[in-house]
Amino acid sequence: MSGSGKGKGLGKAKGQGKAKGQGKAKGKPKPKTAAVAAKKKATGAKKRVPRAPAVATMSIVPPPMPSAAALVEEPFDAAREVHDTQFYLNRWGRVGLRDRAGLHDDFGYDPVWDRRVSPLLNLIYDRYFRVSVEGSEHLPLDGRCLLVANHSGQPPWDGLMLRMAVNRETQRARDLRWLVEDFIVHFPYLGTLATRLGAVRACQENAERLLARGDVLAVFPEGIKGVGKLFKDRYRLQRFGRGGFVKLAIRTRTPIVPVAIVGAEEMNPLLFRIEGASKVLGIPFFPITPGFPLLGPAGLLPAPTKWKISFGEPIDFTSYGLDALDDDVIIGRLSERVRSTIQSMLDRSVAERKSVFFG
Predict the structure, then answer these.
(1) 317 occurs within a structural domain
(2) Is the CB of residue 96 less than 8 Å from the CB of residue 272?
(3) Rounded CA gap, 149 and 193, in Å?
(4) pLDDT tens for residues 290-319?
(5) Cα–Cα distance between 45 and 242 in angstroms, integer?
(6) How many domains does the chain have?
(7) Residue 177 φ/ψ, nearest 5 degrees
(8) Which domain holds residue 208?
(9) Which of 98, 137, 185, 269 is in Cβ range 3.0-4.6 Å of 231 for a Cys bridge?
(10) Closest CA to 240 of 254, 263, 224, 228
(11) Which residues share a beta bridge with 277?
(12) Where would I find the beta strands (DSSP E) of the chain?
């Protein structure tokens, strides 16, 4: 019993030692000598040396010449061209405008486009708004002139109708340019259309250049405040800014002709305005009228109101020197003089009419 147990113990010890020895040999590598490690390290360093990139040889064979069939111009296919979008982009897009760049003046006025739309504008002037003009004899026959008028309407048709009145109803047909706000110039399609018909971005530099050429220039000192008047405040002139038009008249020695426009403030009565829409839509305010936005874009169509444009007697500021430009008291007094004159003209015209639609 004791012998057999001793044998079992010895056999177990030997088996365990052998298994441990084999596992150790397989799991952990044998220790390397210093010479072998240095040799492998040197070999690895040699393998990491980068090789120089191979230089690609360039072909000097010239490209093949096109065949005679390829040089023949492809015939014009009318059906394919008309159905291609690029055809319309070239015809009415930027390429078309670039080809006719010589027909525009420095401010974007296009006489060809003006002649094309003149039948429609004449129809609106004569049949839709039925504009009547009073005091056209106060406009000078030649030389520069500055028209100062009240501002109203969504969108503002007053500048375009005033231009047609000066061109058609005066003793001598003269072309009128009018200043518009920045949001109209940058508004898609509307800004391009207005610029082609004679509108100019409002700034002192553009105004001085136009007057230096001897043109007739119209300004609306009320600006955005005039366009944004509510229906309850119709025909009540807002503040005329800081008198920039007075400084312009003194600096350029230009007479001022006051203008009163009646009928534009009822064509799209402004009931409310949302001021916060300026940042999102790029407009000074979002108008709420009886038709807009309930009827969509159709709600912006103007009502056929009866218009009346009155020209007052010229106001001459040439007696003031350039030193008056720095005197805010004088500029404010002269600005208020023009404003009160236009307000009196508006009050008289509104009192004389019997109907908004029939005059």
Answers:
(1) yes
(2) no
(3) 22
(4) 988 888 888 889 999 999 999 999 999 989
(5) 82
(6) 1
(7) -115, 140
(8) 131-352
(9) 269
(10) 224
(11) none
(12) 132-134, 145-149, 176-180, 199-201, 216-219, 256-262, 272-274, 286-288, 308-311
d(CA 110, CA 195): 8
**Residues constituting the chain:** 359
Place of tokens 């403030």: 265
Place of tokens 């070239």: 90
In degrees rounded to 5, what are phi and psi of residue 262?
A: -115, 135
CA 276, CA 280: separation in Å to the nearest integer? Answer: 8
pLDDT tens digits for range 64-100: 655 555 444 455 555 565 555 565 555 555 544 455 5
Which pLDDT does position 88 carry in this prediction? 53
The verdict on residue 216 lying in a domain is yes
Question: Has residue 40 been placed in a domain?
Answer: no
DSSP state of 357: T
Distance, in Å, from the CA atom of 208 to the CA atom of 200, rounded to the nearest integer, reads: 12
Q: What is the mean pLDDT of the chain?
A: 79
Residue 347 φ then ψ, to 5°: -60, -40
Task: Classify residue 102: in a domain, yes or no.
Answer: no
